[in-house]
Amino acid sequence: MYTFILGATADDVDTCALALKFMNQSWNGPSGYTDVRNEGTPGASTIDPNNLPFALWQWIPSEYMWALSRAWGRNVKDGTRLPDEFKRVIAIVKGRESTAVRGG
Questions:
Q1: What are the angstrom distances between the C-alpha of 84 and each of 14, 31, 55, 80?
Q2: Model-level pTM greater than 0.85?
Q3: Considering the domain boundaries, does residue 62 fall inside one?
Q4: pLDDT for 45-82, tens place per residue?
Q5: Does some domain include residue 99?
């Protein structure tokens, strides 16, 4: 996830897409944190936006976080389609795709 965050912070869509393509880790068991904002959901994918610790969520620029959430929510959670859907959505957010609205 840190590679994705680095790419997002640098406004580098390709680095983010590569991070999504090769990410296959899950959050470990209970972290011992007493504050849920500091821990990922045990067993969940580390790139699942629904299970990110609050601190990591805050580090990701909003347009990148929204694009990741939207791509993830379109049931493209497998490593082959998620990067492409993320790139498609972030292009729309950044105004780099001529078709701003697509059915589905």
A1: 10, 32, 26, 8
A2: no
A3: yes
A4: 888 888 888 888 899 999 999 999 999 888 666 567 89
A5: no
**pLDDT tens-digit series, residues 1-22:** 889 999 999 999 999 999 998 8
**Which residue has tokens 């950044």?**
94
Range of the domain at 69: 2-93
In the chain, which ranges are continuous DSSP H helix?
2-9, 13-22, 54-59, 62-73, 82-93
Residue 76 lies in a domain: yes
Q: Return the closest-CA partner of residue 46 out of 70, 20, 81, 67.
A: 20
- DSSP symbol at 42: T
